[in-house]
Amino acid sequence: MAASEGPLKGIKVLDLSRILAGPTCTQLLGDLGATVIKIENPATGGDDTRQWGPPYVEDAEGNRSDLSAYFMSANRNKKSVAIDIASPEGQAEIKRLASHADILIENFKPGGLAKYGLDYATLSQEFPSLVYCSISGYGQTGPNASKPGYDLMAQGYGGIMSLTGDAEGQPMKVAVGIADVVCGMYASVGILAALRHRDQTGEGQQIDLALVDTQVSWLINEGVNYLTSGQVPQRRGNAHPNIVPYEVYDTADGHVILAVGNDGQFRRFCEFIGHADLADDPRYTTNPARLEHREALNAILRPALQTYDTATVIAELEARKVPVGPVRTLDQVFASDQVAARQMQITMQAGPGEVNLIGNPLKFSRTPVTYRSAPPEFGVDTQTVLNAENPFED
């Protein structure tokens, strides 16, 4: 592993998390230059997501590695160390590593690490400057604290599923583990804030972060719509609760996203589809009026847009400065010149071969992110780390 660079160079992270929320956080810290040691359970073959495939990385003969695509999505820039924390020897090793670490992150059930002497109350006595981040489904307190937490359950409990999907269909989860991912991002922010406090005072602290809490936090406008009006929002598919027209429309050969944000844009849009009169109709002149008459307006817009192909709609509306865009499949996304220009697809050497990964979106002018090591095979760094006087040395 090459020497760490980046704004977090020199920061040492002990990662006891698995699956997605914690690993998302620690991968981000690693991309920013921190040295991350990932602890994996030898009794289970490591992080659960190593078995969440296919697809997996395979060698030239087609032999499967333990690098699933899911695991690789959140575990670059880390060392993998196999330690059984249930054993006295494993607990001693974790404490030795913690003595060198700035940050410890874990996602055990609340109280789950106390029996090993690795909980915050115990470790903070020995290492008072340690920043200790605990991620769980419902948090360290409250009536549901003992319940397990998974992304799907967080999306259901926290309300986002009730807002997602067709009005007449089932409540729908977001296609990716977004509750986990946003929780990991909140964890990163919290850790950096706690590090600043530690640098100023020498004092560490525990960060208590729940999947459900963070999911509730990103209800954003729909959540505050409810808190303001007392009206429970209904599912609208791709439609926006506060803006019309702002959704996906069918075209002659596919779909297009229309995002009309103001009345001037609406007028220019109407001119394009040959219904300039709509912009002067009192039912549609303003956004509040369009919201009130959403269905009547869409009864006109939908057939009008279906007479054009997608490329024409996009070209004509872009020329009129009306926000519009395509609905792309992933092959189109990763083949795009925009993804290439922004380096949002990267290639690394992992295990038996090259792998393609999603790049980090942060672009720094002075301290860019670095991709120093690919997602590790299980336990590959165990002996190197455990035998080192400074286990976090790159």
Write the layout of secondary structure elements.
Elements: E1 12-16, H1 21-31, E2 35-40, E3 56-58, E4 64-68, H2 69-72, E5 79-82, H3 88-100, E6 103-106, H4 120-126, E7 131-136, H5 151-157, H6 160-163, H7 178-201, E8 205-210, H8 211-217, H9 220-229, E9 246-250, E10 255-259, H10 263-272, H11 287-292, H12 294-305, H13 310-319, E11 324-326, H14 330-334, H15 337-341, E12 345-350, E13 353-358, H16 382-386
Parallel strand pairs: 1-2, 1-6, 2-5, 6-7, 7-8
Antiparallel strand pairs: 3-4, 9-10, 10-11, 12-13
Helix pairs in contact: 1-7, 7-8
Report on this model:
By secondary structure, the protein is α/β, with parallel strands linked by helices. It has helices at 21-31, 69-72, 88-100, 120-126, 151-157, 160-163, 178-201, 211-217, 220-229, 263-272, 287-292, 294-305, 310-319, 330-334, 337-341, 382-386; strands at 12-16, 35-40, 56-58, 64-68, 79-82, 103-106, 131-136, 205-210, 246-250, 255-259, 324-326, 345-350, 353-358. It has two domains: 12-218 and 337-386, 3-Layer(aba) Sandwich (Rossmann fold), CATH 3.40.50; 255-326, formyl-coa transferase, domain 3 (2-Layer Sandwich). The protein is built from 16 helices and 13 strands. The strands form four sheets. A six-stranded parallel β-sheet has the order 5-2-1-6-7-8, sandwiched between helices. The protein is elongated and about 75 Å long.
